[in-house]
Design a protein that fits this description.
159 residues, alpha/beta, Elongation Factor Tu (Ef-tu), domain 3, seven-stranded mixed beta sheet, 17% helix, 23% strand
């Protein structure tokens, strides 16, 4: 009997496998692919499984598995900062991705996804749920020397 968490990880790995070139011998790290850059003001953002303070939202979304969604409403933003939704929308999900980085200076999300560019242009909402990226994706990155981004072995549990 296979645990549901293992099946979920296998599904995510299979989905991310769509990024791999045909005939690739092993999984390339998260740093070997073209990463689309999405401006903060082009997409709305919502954490759907818990309440996150607006000041901590970027910490929550960075290195997270997100749904790439299309809401029917136009995204309106008064500032250059992230557009935060106050309620979870009813919307179409066009695929999934990993927010591989958040550039606060340029106000960009870097999203790793196998969703083709023509579909990615329709995305105007990122929904973050309670699905973790499998550890092997983060720990097993080939070609990274030194510390692996988003992975640490020095963690102070007394915080």
């Amino acid at each position: 009997r296979v645990h549901s968490g293992v099946l979920r990880d296998m599904s995510i790995l299979g989905y991310l496998g769509l990024l791999q070139p045909p005939g690739a011998g092993g999984f390339f790290g998260l740093f070997f692919f073209f990463i689309p850059q999405v401006p903060f003001n082009a997409v709305a953002l919502r954490v759907i499984h818990t309440d996150v303070a607006p000041t901590n939202i970027m910490y929550a979304v960075n290195a997270s598995w997100v749904g790439l969604c299309r809401i029917p409403d136009e995204i309106r933003c008064q500032s250059e900062g992230p557009v935060l939704l106050t309620q979870t929308p009813i919307c179409d999900c066009l695929g999934f991705g990993i927010v591989r980085g958040v550039d606060m200076e340029k106000k960009l999300y870097h999203i790793l996804t196998p969703v083709p560019p023509e579909s990615l242009r329709l995305v105007n909402c990122l929904l973050l749920g309670n699905i973790a990226i499998p550890n092997c994706v983060l720990v097993g990155q080939q070609g990274v020397e030194g510390e692996i981004p988003y992975v640490t072995s020095d963690y102070n549990y007394s915080i």
